[in-house]
Every structure is written in C-alpha cells, then in structure tokens.
Write a structure and sequence with these properties.
The complex is a heterodimer of chains A (538) and B (154). Chain A is an alpha+beta fold and 538 residues long. Helices cover 51% and strands 24% of the residues of chain A. Chain B has 2 domains: 55 residues, no CATH class; 84 residues, Pleckstrin-homology domain (PH domain)/Phosphotyrosine-binding domain (PTB) (PH-domain like, Roll), CATH 2.30.29.30. In chain B, a hairpin with a 6-residue loop joins strand 5 and strand 6. The model of chain B has no long low-confidence stretch (mean pLDDT 86). The chains are: A alpha+beta (538), B alpha+beta (154). At the A-B interface, strand 18, strand 19, strand 20 and helix 16 of A face strand 3 of B.
Chain lengths: 538, 154
C-alpha cells in the first residue's frame, strides 16, 4: 500500500522533518470504523431484532443477516480508509498545512504566529489503540481550528514539542522589537521544563466534589432513553400510564396508602426522597470521576498544563499571558464548606466551553497561588466594593412577580370555569403562585444585597449570582472597548448596563447606576488607552 | 451623555434612512393594494396600518435616529452614541483597534456618505459601526486612526 512511505519514515527516524508531507496513523481507520460501526450497529440490531420477532420473517431474515452486516461494515471501513488515504499534513517552516477530503479537497494553512496552543485529546477507542487527537488552537472559536485525528501517542507528543518550539520562535521573532519581551523570555527559560505541580485532585477530593455535584440529569436521561427505545420494551409505557389512569390505578394506590398508618406513610415518603437523593449523588460522583479523574495542573515553562479524564483523557496547555480574566465560582451549599472553583477565560476554547477549568473544586488557599501565577490578585478586602442600583432589582422583581401573577390568575380562572366550583386543587394553584412570588422577592432582595463590583489599580472585579455565585476578575489593560447601554425602562429609572469588550468571554455589569458606570468607564478607558494592544504579551 | 460635545452626522444620512424606510414599506404598500383589489376586506382597511408604518419609517424615525446619533473623536479614542429607544454609548480606544473598514452601499454612494467600522479583538462589540459620515471625513478618520495604531505599535 501507499502508506508505507510515511509509516516507515515515522518508525525509523522518530523525528519530524520540516516540510515533509505526512499521513496520520493508519490505525485511525480502525478507530473511525469502530466508532461508526457503534452508531450503525444499534439500528441494524434493532431492525434485525424487529424482523426476527415476527416468526414468519425469521427464515428470510437469517439468510440475509450476514451479507447485510458485512455490507454495513464495508460501508463504514471504505470511507474511513479513503478519508485516511486522502488526508495529509505538513509541518512547514512557517505554517502547518492540512489537506483533506475524499472528492472535494480542502487545504488549510495555519501560520505559526496564529497558533495559540497545541492540545492533545484521547477518547476511549483512541486510548485503547494508543492514539491521540492533536488540535492546533487558533482562538478562532472552536470550529475553524486545525485537527489531526489520530496519530500515535509518541507522534502526538513530538508534534506538540516541534510545533510549540516553532510557535515560540515565531512569537519571539515578532516580539524582538519590543522592549518588554526580553524580560518575559528570561522568566520563561528560568523555569524548569518539567514544571511544578500547582493543583491536583485525589480520589477523596473527587468524592467530595461528586457529592456536591448532585445532579438529577440521570432521570432525564432514563426518560429520554425510554422514549427513544420504547419499541424494545415488552410493554408500551404510555399505554401503561394511560391504562393506569383509566382503570383508576391511582385510586387503588391511594387506598393502599390510605390503609397505612402515619409512620408507614412518612417512611414511604422518606424512602422516596432518599432514593432520589442517593441516585442524584451517585450520578454526580460518576460524572465527576469520569471527567476529572487524575486531575493535575502544572506550571510549566510554557504556561499552565492541565491533565484530566478517565475515558476521554485531555492534556491542555494554556500560555500564561493569554489568560484574559479569572472566574471564581461556587455553589450556594458548597460555599458554606469553603469550596470554590477557579477557571480562566482565554482565547482558546476548552472542549466547546470558553472557560478553562483550572481548579474545579478547591479551597481558597489553593486558588490564591494559581491566581497569582496567572498575574491576578484575588480580592483581599481593601477594594471599595459598590452596589448596583436598587431600582434595577426592584423593577426586575416587580416584572417577574407580575408575570407569575398573570399566569397564575389565568390558570386559576381556567381551572375554576372547568370545575364550576371551588376545589382543593385550586388552593394548591393559589398557594404555588404565592410561594413563587415570595421566592422571586427573596431572590431580588438577596441579589441586591450580594451583587457588587469594584475597581483596583490593575483589575475590574465583579461579584454576581444567587445559587451559583461567582467572582470575575479582569485585567484592565486586557479589555478592548466599553459600552454603556440603556433600554427605555432603564433610561426612565436611571440605571444602565456596562459592557466590556473582552477577548474570549463576556464581561458585563447589569443595573449599574449611571454615575457609577461612567466612573468605571473613565477609569478603565484611562488604563486601556495608555497601553497599546500590540505591546501586551500575546 | 457626558460633557464632551458630540459631532453630528451628515444631514443626508436622514435622507438615506428615509429612502431605506420607503424601500421597506414598498412591499407592504403592494400587499395592501392587492388586498384592496381582492375585496376581501373593505378597500380602505389595509391602508391604515401601512400609512402608520410609512409615517413611522419615513417620517418620524429617520429624524429621531439622526438626532440620537453622534460621535466624538478624542486624541486616543472614538466614542459612538446611538439609539432612540435602546441607547448605547460605546468607546473604543484606538490602541485596541485591530483593523478598519470604510463601507458604502449604493444609496450611500449616491449621497456621498460612508460607514466607518472599527474591529476589536473583544467578543462583545467585535465591530463598532459609525454610519452617516461624509465619505471624505470617513477616509480621513480611518487614516487618522490607522496612523495612531501604527505609531503605538512601533
């Protein structure tokens, strides 16, 4: 086969030669075939199963089953092979090139100056085969980056080292004229290449994290699966539910419950609640373990290096100077126990999310050194925190409460006209409306008390949120524009929204008093305008 | 909003907006005509909403929009103000401008005005548009800002 040339040179030299066209690992075909088969085999099985369950069809189907399966396999392997055959890449002297496409070809070239970072990702199948996906991130927002899937682990590591060295060279060349680049280069080389551990999560920590990541998504998943695969079940779920109501099954169930004494009822309810809580916690733990297994954050010469994952293993490096802002987030319960999470907002993306989680579950004393390493200072109480305009919270609470009231009245009258008289169910509706309104008012009050913002000499800080409060810290000189906007209501009531243009994320303040917003804007603009963007370390 | 006086846009920007309003109402006028001819409803009925739309889009809004818009060019930043109902006041420091565009549509060309567009690296406000500038002014401003970007980069 023709692949011999690239496979051999790879095996023999183990070096990446510049300007040489290469192919990804041939095992990619297997990985892709397995993945596509996996998605094709379930429907195929279902069709065969469905046909076979009708007795008279059994004879006919069994004769065709093997050819059909072979055809499915061939239909998966051939495009995978063609795709592999028609894909080639080149690590050139000034750019990375990738040509792909079976019939319509696409050629992409990414110059080294534009490569933000090279990251490696291993999904389950790739991991079993010892392959990695190499991503060259450009900060273009996910879709338009250059991806090599898949190459062998050793090749991935080599590619990363080679390209990083080339990117570094390109950066230094561009920065040669700048006076402040030299100092940075010095600190870079001064660090050991191996890096030092900043943060890691052991099994105990993961377990605690999982307990706090209580999630009821599993119930939605089960419900969704039932809906998708109900034809495989021996009984019809919706029929069953319908019959349950038609035959007044609930009446019997009610009688059954009515027959129990108070203690049994309470135990029953407790049992139900406990089951939901336990399942929620278990699914939270499972999710956390799969995502954050062997979480490890290192400070290397190039930046922050994060490794994590049980099934899909990822290895991401974030250059320090590309961190635009910090987000310290927490939850309303975990805050009581002193647990917080730290993530970076940067130009590159982290599996679709704009924020890079660097310490998802940590105590403040663990977060502070990481923040300092990234060049940010956590708030220490010396800042002058200011509150947004109370009018904003009053208006929002009023509008939300009015909305709920109107809906409640509509539902109440609808129920009243259909029932013709007052029924106990209608008091439940009224009670629910009142409860929701109380909740909205409490929330509005809490937010007004809690939300604040501050300005220190180098940073802008914002603290927001109710159930998941977070503190955002942005570097003043890394902001790009400032906008003050007002709707009609805001204009009348004297508040506004302040928006900062930030690369890779959102940074806005809702409901600031106009005077405050102007003061913030003037201060931030002063620091932005004094530093040119091109002089910022990229 | 702030103390510094805003520079008004070119008055022919209003005319351009009026013509754009007319173009927007044209399909509605045709639709209303068809409805009147078809005699589904009384012949005068479709005229009323179209008339209201025309007064708003051609008569009232262009003037209001023109009055609400303005800009201020300081030594190191450009401030763009706009919005009748939803007010927005954006400031872009020249040192954060990535690249610049001067654009002209066919209507704008006929009246000799242009749009100046400033692109920044931010996700929000990635491009800030200032419409209704006299074409020569727009070009001059572009050169001015470009000089600034160049000088500070060196």
């Amino acid at each position: 086969m023709n692949d011999q040339l690239s496979a051999e040179s790879e095996a023999e030299t183990g070096e990446i030669e510049l300007g040489e066209w290469r192919r990804v690992s041939p095992l990619t075909i297997a990985a892709q075939g397995v993945r596509m088969l996996g998605s094709a085999i379930i429907p195929a099985g279902v069709v065969l199963f469905g046909a076979a369950s009708q007795r008279e069809m059994l004879g006919q189907v069994s004769a065709y089953a093997v050819p059909i399966l072979l055809l499915i396999i061939a239909a998966n392997i051939v495009p995978a092979w063609l795709g592999w055959y028609r894909l080639r890449y080149r690590i050139g002297t000034s750019d990375v090139r990738l040509e792909q496409g079976i019939i319509s070809r696409s050629a992409r070239s990414v110059p080294y100056e534009r490569i933000q970072d090279v990251s490696l990702e291993q999904k389950l199948i790739a991991r079993l085969l010892g392959l990695v996906e190499v991503k060259f991130e450009t900060g273009a927002g996910g879709k338009e980056e250059l991806k090599l899937s898949l190459v062998t682990e050793a090749e991935g590591e080599r590619l990363r080292e080679t390209v990083r060295a080339l990117v570094e060279g390109a950066d230094e060349g561009a920065a040669a004229a700048k006076p402040d680049a030299a100092g940075e280069a010095e600190t870079r080389t001064a660090l050991q290449p191996e890096g030092r551990l900043l943060f890691a999560m052991g099994t105990g920590r993961l377990l605690t994290f999982g307990l706090f990541s209580f999630s009821l998504v599993i119930f939605a998943v089960i419900l969704g699966a039932v809906q998708q695969l109900e034809f495989l079940l021996p009984f019809d779920v919706w029929d069953y539910a319908e019959r349950y109501i038609q035959d007044e099954g609930y009446f019997e169930a009610g009688k059954y419950i009515g027959g129990m004494d108070m203690a049994a009822r309470i135990i029953g309810i407790l049992y139900l609640v406990l089951t939901v809580v336990v399942v929620g916690m278990l699914s939270g733990i499972a999710k956390t373990f799969v995502r954050d297994w062997e979480f490890r954050l290192d400070r290397t010469a190039k930046g922050f290096r994060r490794r994590r994952g049980l099934l899909t293993k990822t290895d991401v490096v974030m250059p320090v100077h590309r961190v635009q802002a910090l987000v310290v987030s927490t939850g309303i319960i975990r805050r009581r126990f002193g647990w917080h999470g730290l993530s970076f907002i940067s130009l590159a993306q982290d599996s679709g999310k704009a924020n890079h989680e660097v310490a998802p579950f940590a105590k403040m004393y663990e977060i502070a050194p990481i923040a300092r390493e990234a060049g940010f200072e956590l708030p220490d109480g010396a800042e002058e925190w200011r509150r947004p305009s109370p009018n904003y919270y009053f208006d929002r609470t009023l509008i939300a409460a009015l909305f709920v009231t109107v809906i409640g009245i509509l539902v109440f009258t609808a129920a009243g006209t259909s029932a013709g008289q007052l029924e106990p169910g209608m008091f439940v509706i009224a009670g629910a409306v009142v409860a929701i309104i109380v909740l909205i008012v409490v929330r509005g009050y809490f937010l007004w008390r809690y939300d604040r913002h501050a300005l220190d000499p180098a940073q802008v800080l914002s603290r927001r949120g109710w159930l998941a409060p977070q503190v955002k810290i942005a570097n003043r000189v890394k902001l790009h524009s400032v906008e003050i906007s007002q709707g009609p209501l805001a204009k009348w009531r004297g508040y506004c929204r302040l928006h900062f243009g930030m690369a890779g994320g959102r940074f806005s303040f809702d409901g600031l008093a106009l005077e405050d917003a102007r003061k913030l804007r003037a201060a931030v603009l002063g620091s932005i305008a004094s530093v040119d963007y091109a002089q910022l370390p990229r | 909003m702030d103390a510094e006086p805003l520079t008004q846009l070119d008055p022919s920007y209003t005319t351009v907006m009026r013509i754009e309003g007319l173009l927007t109402t044209l399909p509605f006028i045709i639709g209303a005509g068809v409805l009147s001819f078809a005699e589904v409803v009384p012949a005068w009925a479709p005229g009323i909403p179209v008339l209201i739309l025309a007064i708003l889009l051609i008569g009232v809004l262009p003037m209001k929009r023109y009055r609400s818009r303005g800009y201020h060019m300081a030594a190191d930043r450009l401030r763009v103000v706009k919005g009748v109902m939803f007010h927005a006041d954006t400031v872009v420091p020249f040192s954060r401008v990535q690249h610049l565009d001067v654009e002209q549509g066919p209507l704008e060309r006929a009246f000799g005005i242009a749009r100046l567009i400033l692109h920044t690296a931010g996700t929000h406000n990635a491009s800030v548009t200032l419409p209704g500038l006299p074409f020569d002014d727009a070009k001059a401003m572009r050169e001015d800002i470009r000089q600034h970007v160049k000088r500070e980069s060196l």
